Amino acid sequence: MTKLEGSALQSALAQVPAWTFDAERHAIRRTLRFADFKAAFGFMTRTALEAERQNHHPEWFNVYHQVEILFSTHDAGGLTELDIAFARWVDATALAMGAR
């Protein structure tokens, strides 16, 4: 995987408008809010299984109904197409599970 830069980075970021670009870490992050802890943990469980399937693991943090996720590809030194694809999967899954 190649680190996204320049116009490729801007184009990729446009695909995930709900995510914030962290220039210092060359990563994207998003905070999701669910109805309660059970829903948040259910989302995390589904995401963990998908991460294992992809062999690509997010950094994340959970407090009660809130989940913060950060994607960056460590081997590439920053954001890659793999991160964008997984972020899009997260968006669709979170929406289906009632996140806001």
Automatic annotation (TrEMBL):
It catalyses: (4aS,6R)-4a-hydroxy-L-erythro-5,6,7,8-tetrahydrobiopterin = (6R)-L-erythro-6,7-dihydrobiopterin + H2O. HAMAP family: Pterin_4_alpha. The lineage of its organism: Bacteria, Pseudomonadati, Pseudomonadota, Betaproteobacteria, Burkholderiales. Belongs to the pterin-4-alpha-carbinolamine dehydratase family. It comes from Extensimonas vulgaris. One of its GO terms (molecular function) is 4-alpha-hydroxytetrahydrobiopterin dehydratase activity. This is Putative pterin-4-alpha-carbinolamine dehydratase. It comes from the Bacteria. Its EC number is 4.2.1.96. GO terms for biological process: tetrahydrobiopterin biosynthetic process. InterPro entries: PCD_sf (IPR036428), Pterin_deHydtase (IPR001533). Keywords: Lyase.
